[in-house]
């Protein structure tokens, strides 16, 4: 009910609404804040008394350097504002019904965060403001910092947050599971479309970034809470002018990639991500990520891995094993010691040291090292796993865990170790956006999330996309394009509105050509 009501608010035509999906909160006993903003006695609602003052944030939140501490503290104040907004969305609360105390608390945190930020921005170098903004935005989505923020809240406040999230989770989980089962089986949703009355606009025609993100997330099968979280993040960043694209890793160039983990009998491991591979178990070398490239050589896929002196080249064969040199000098770095220094926090008002804030910070010291290791006969030991939420990894939700862990354990977010695809291909009205374990198919108004497989044969590499009962085979061409045959029908769904208990959808079927899809760079 709560989540659905939030979606209704997203549809409000004259108000930009944000919603946030909060993690489960750990309980931490603490006293009431001593220098909280001026709230009524007792505040309305009463749980506002459990929010921390600025000085407690500065005392408890710190990082590896003074600047890192400042970035974390500003992000913490932003997270506290989000929590105040989330609590206003409890079941039974009217739309846009913030109390005077809620408004004062939000204004207090906003002013405090601005004062902290200005402390650095007034003297920051030309590119410092941008890097500061981006660091704060990343910390706002950092699970570790969220746990620290939770510990600043008093038990009554934590209890209220848990109650609100629990109510929404209980009502949406069954529906989320069914949506995912339907998507996996190619079932077309049966809800009838909801048409607006004559002269009215559809409640979901708004084009602000938050609403668009929520719609696409829901239509691809995401749960209410995780999709609302995406809407909040996208909308908030757009409102304050943060360049979300600058926070997102660059889009992978289209082409063949690798996924999964491979190990030798002696324990040396290659753990592939879409962009880098971590090499573990090679002497004492640190497992730094190394860029790699993949090229076809008949029925072999040659993987060239970055190395200072010369690239390390291994090959994935048709038997699923990786073969490489029996002795190779791998260049890297090892930890040679630790640097220890003392960090203290200072007040913004008078630059005095915050009592008790001093603490030691250790940073590793690295030195170059070359180790000789064996890279022959590596077998697959772990599959490709989507990072965090399956839908979140597609639409950019930065959560630390999947919204439905059972779905991930069942293999819905996994693919066998081996060749994968990356990037976007388009042509004939069809667009395929490849991710480590899934591909998003877009055809007209229809879009759907599907698994895919990659097979390398002696004469060709084929990518087969599951599309209901009619798989779509595509062959990789010499120029990097994907070639198929004829036209295909893509079945998806669109959000049409909400009722008191559910989001309503209408099926969409569109026909596109799959004859030739060119990589989008």
What does this entry show, briefly?
This protein has helices at residues 2-10, 54-60, 66-87, 100-121, 128-140, 143-151, 155-185, 209-219, 224-240, 244-247, 390-395, 405-409; strands spanning 255-263, 269-272, 276-280, 289-297, 300-305, 312-316, 322-323, 328-343, 359-373, 379-382, 384-385, 414-415, 418-427, 430-434, 439-443, 446-450, 452-456, 461-465, 472-476, 482-483, 487-498, 503-513, 516-520. With 521 residues, it is α+β, with helices and mostly antiparallel strands. The longest helix has 31 residues, at 155-185.
How would you characterize the overall build of this protein?
This protein is α+β, with helices and mostly antiparallel strands and 521 residues long. The protein folds into three domains: 245 residues, no CATH class; 113 residues, no CATH class; 119 residues, no CATH class. Helices cover 30% and strands 29% of the residues. It contains twelve helices and 23 strands. It has a 17-stranded antiparallel β-sheet that branches. A two-stranded antiparallel ribbon has the order 8-9. A two-stranded antiparallel ribbon has the order 11-12. Helix 3 crosses helix 5 and helix 8 packs antiparallel against helix 9. The longest helix has 31 residues.
């Amino acid at each position: 009910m709560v989540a659905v009501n939030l979606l209704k608010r997203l549809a409000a035509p004259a108000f930009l609404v944000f919603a946030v999906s909060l993690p489960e909160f750990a309980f931490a006993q603490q006293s009431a804040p001593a220098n909280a903003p001026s709230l009524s006695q007792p505040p309305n609602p009463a749980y506002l008394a459990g929010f921390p003052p600025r000085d407690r944030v500065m005392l408890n939140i710190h990082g590896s350097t003074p600047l890192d501490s400042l970035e974390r503290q500003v992000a913490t104040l932003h997270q506290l504002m989000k929590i105040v907004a989330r609590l206003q969305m409890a079941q039974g609360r009217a739309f846009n019904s913030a109390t005077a105390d809620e408004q004062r608390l939000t204004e207090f945190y906003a002013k405090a965060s601005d004062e902290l930020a200005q402390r650095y921005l007034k003297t920051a170098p030309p590119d410092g403001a941008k890097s500061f903004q981006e660091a704060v935005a990343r910390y706002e989505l950092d699970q570790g910092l969220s746990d620290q923020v939770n510990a600043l809240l008093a038990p009554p406040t934590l209890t209220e947050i848990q109650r609100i999230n629990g109510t929404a989770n209980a009502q949406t989980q069954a529906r989320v599971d069914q949506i995912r089962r339907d998507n996996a089986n190619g079932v077309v949703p049966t809800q009838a479309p909801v048409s607006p009355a004559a002269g009215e606009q559809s409640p979901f025609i708004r084009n602000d970034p938050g609403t668009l993100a929520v719609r696409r997330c829901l239509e691809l099968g995401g749960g209410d809470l995780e999709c609302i979280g995406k809407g909040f993040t996208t909308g908030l960043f757009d409102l304050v002018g943060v360049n979300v694209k600058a926070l997102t890793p660059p889009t992978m160039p289209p082409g063949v990639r690798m996924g999964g983990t491979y190990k030798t009998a002696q324990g040396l491991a290659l753990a592939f991500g879409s962009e880098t591979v971590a090499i573990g178990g090679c002497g004492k070398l640190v497992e730094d990520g190394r860029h790699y490239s993949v090229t076809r050589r008949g029925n072999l896929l040659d993987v060239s891995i970055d190395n200072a002196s010369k690239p390390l080249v291994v090959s994935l064969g048709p038997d699923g094993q990786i073969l490489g040199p029996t002795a190779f000098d791998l260049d890297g770095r090892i930890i040679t010691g630790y640097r220890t220094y003392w960090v203290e926090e200072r007040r913004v008002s008078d630059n005095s040291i915050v009592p008790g804030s001093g603490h030691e910070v250790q940073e590793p010291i690295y030195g170059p090292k070359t180790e000789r290791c064996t890279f022959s006969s590596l077998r697959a030991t772990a599959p490709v796993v989507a990072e965090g939420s399956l839908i979140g990894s597609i639409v950019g939700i930065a959560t630390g865990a999947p919204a439905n862990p059972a779905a991930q354990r069942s293999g819905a977010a996994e693919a066998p170790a081996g060749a994968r695809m990356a990037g976007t291909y388009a042509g004939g009205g069809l667009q395929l956006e490849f991710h480590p374990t899934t591909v998003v198919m877009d055809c007209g108004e229809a879009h759907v999330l599907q698994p895919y497989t990659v097979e390398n044969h002696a004469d060709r590499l084929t990518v087969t996309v599951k599309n209901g009962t009619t798989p779509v085979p595509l062959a990789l061409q010499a120029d990097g394009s994907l070639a198929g045959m004829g036209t295909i029908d893509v079945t998806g769904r669109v959000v049409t509105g909400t009722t008191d208990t559910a989001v309503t959808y209408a099926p969409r079927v569109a026909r596109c050509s799959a004859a030739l899809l060119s990589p989008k760079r």
